[in-house]
Amino acid sequence: MCGFVGFLSARAAHWGEPVLRDMANAIARRGPDDAGYWLDAQAGAALGHRRLAIVDLSDAGHQPMASGGGRYVLAFNGEIYNHLELRRELQAHGATGWRGRSDTETLLAGFDAWGIEKMLGKCVGMFAFAAWDRQERVLTLGRDRLGEKPLYYGWQGVGEDAAFLFGSELKALQAHPAFDAPVCRHALALFMRHSCVPAPYSIRQGIAKLPPGHLLTIGLHDRTPRVSDYWSGKTVVEQGLAQTFAGTPAQAVDALDALLRQAIAGQLMADVPLGALLSGGVDSSTVVALMQALAKERGAPPVRTFTIGFEEAGYDEAVHARAVARHLGTAHTELYMSHHHALAVIPALPRIYCEPFADSSQIPTYLVSQLARGHVTVSLSGDGGDELFGGYQRYWLAHRLWRRIAQMPRSMRRLAAASLVALSPSAWNRLLKPAQRLLPARQQARNWGDTLHKGAGILAAAGEMELYRLLVSAWPDPAAVVIDGIEPLTILTDAARQPTGGSFVHRLMALDMQSYLPDDILCKVDRAAMDCSLETRVPMLDHRVVEFAWSLPLGYKKRAGVSKWILREVLHRYVPRELIERPKMGFGIPLGEWLRGPLRGWAEELLAEPRLLRQGYFHPAPIRRKWAEHTSGQRNWARQLWTVLMFQSWIEGQGALS
User: Fold this and answer.
1) Distance (Å) of CA 95 to CA 92, 118, 134, 507, 525
2) CA geometry: angle at 239 spanning 237 and 242, to 5°?
3) With contact defined as beta carbons under 8 Å apart, do 378 and 270 qualify?
């Protein structure tokens, strides 16, 4: 796991290694073990690299690295888990003279032998890379199939000072003298809805993110990058739905068990200590169970596992993780988190997430990564299970809601919605208070007025996709809060990018796999872990597992009311049901309570009306209204306010570029 940077420019010789060094130093935490720089001044190409040594710790793994034939120079971030198999195949075709054991050298040999795209089709791994073709004078950028590793790019500067910049993180591009990209208000509008900026957009005008499964090629004298996919999530979904797994449920469980074992076995490749993040939920417990089973079969020491707990009741899953770890016999380490930990991490978030990012689980993700890095250099996680196997309750909720409200004419739904918002949430709570005593105890404290107001927005939805977009939106109408913010098309609003066929639930899972997973979940994990110089690996996103998951009938994912049924069946072979079967909690934090308590002063300063007016990005009124309602306890606007707070915190650190 590493990070890389680079640029194409007629002034490459003028900027030279000092600029490359500045760009690479901006992401030094991604690779603290080594740094390398390569410059072809005549061709105008420059590559820089920061290395976190994982496989072949010797100087033979130093980057940027040239291929054996000299045609390609590569800066690479990630791991190719099957690179030893590929070496054997290359050797059978005459490859000789290996300099070391790194997967980077294997990747380059494959580029020489088969070309870039064909080699990527053979690779099992996570990666982003920049490859300079010295023969054709063409740069190729590439990103792994599911988007585990990030990659930014874009032209900056004018005339002779123009430069095509690229790198693992946005802050690396900002270190180049030509960088002068203002905040993109349209991307800010997307951020207010999604709590992240979805690819291919970035928060900076003229800078893009390469989508997962895509390649980009460009030459110095061709300002238009050519972007194409070598692997398509949309195609995988459509093919899986068209060619459904024909075996029995038991055969499907056997097949998934074998595929996950294969994926995890490959991801145990490392010359440094390796462990796993364990929440005690289905996904991470399955990964850890299979890791521990493989360790026992190989006579290896117990797996190192790490978890975060919370002092606040209702948020703590550490007790469940501890029970799973005890049953499996892992070497377990845990940290209990309080608001003091959050206060310590929050000032670093704008640096860690170099564009605004507002999934509040970023805080415990960073802390558990920090905890793990004290013991290991590589950690496996269970991310991806919800998107592939139907774990999010919102899939089934959206399906049930639309099936019910679609029977009512939209005009009537709009009238009903207007009636619900005619009374304030507090008025509804007063009106319903006598009836609440008849409800189960766990429901009596619920803010029913808040629930009714949220339901009003759903009632007015024009279609099932709009309903889902409302369910997953932080701010359902970003244009009402972002000044001059107009949302560009995303996969949620562009039907041409959405898979065809299957049910509504299938489509929602597919959309999450292609957007929410890479843009939120994987971004969160990559930035948090890499800031701690920890490599994370995600076995469930092995593309062979993904392709198999999409071939499964929906009834194998939710069966007899149980979500992720097939994954649970695999897990129950290793862990008793009673240790796992409980309501899903997620990796949330008590953010609403903290914003009314220990984080209130910090938030009030960032949300002050004079500051909002001076910065000129937001209409202050809706933000101030939500802040007042939240602090008074009338409503819970934690998610919406956190989105604003994360932008405010980020923009404060941008200096002249704000």
Assistant:
1) 7, 17, 20, 44, 37
2) 110
3) yes
What CATH class does 2-231 carry? alpha beta
Pairing verdict, β 72-80 and 331-337: unpaired
Nearest to 124 by CA among 105, 108, 103: 103
Number of H helices, E strands in the chain: 29, 19
Find residue 129's DSSP bridge partners: 76, 142
What is the separation of C-alpha 340 from the centre of its chain, rounded to a whole number of angstroms?
26
Mean pLDDT of 579-593: 76
Contacts of 301 (CB under 8 A, 6+ apart): 295, 331
CA distances (Å), 154 to each of 20, 159, 195, 208, 218, in order? 16, 15, 23, 6, 11
Q: Please name which of 343, 278, 282 lies closest in space to residue 309, comparing C-alpha atoms.
A: 278
Q: Where are the domains of the chain?
A: 2-231, 235-337+356-390+507-579, 590-658
Taking the complete model, does pTM exceed 0.90, yes or no?
yes
Query: What's the CATH architecture for 235-337+356-390+507-579?
Result: 3-Layer(aba) Sandwich (3.40)
Three-state SS annotation for 208-277 = EECCCCEEEEECCCCCCCEEEECCCHHHHHHHHHHCCCCCCHHHHHHHHHHHHHHHHHHHCCCCCCEEEE
Please tell me the distance from the alpha carbon of residue 567 to that of residue 575, in angstroms, as a whole number.
Answer: 12
Give the contacts of 531 (CB within 8 A, at least 6 positions apart).
29, 348, 351, 352, 366, 369
How many angstroms separate the CA atoms of 145 and 221, rounded?
29
Residues 6+ apart with CB under 8 A from 617: 183, 185, 188, 482, 483, 647, 651
Tens-place pLDDT, residues 199-244: 999 999 999 999 999 999 999 888 899 999 999 999 999 999 999 9
The amino acid occupying position 566 is I
CA distance 470 to 461: 8
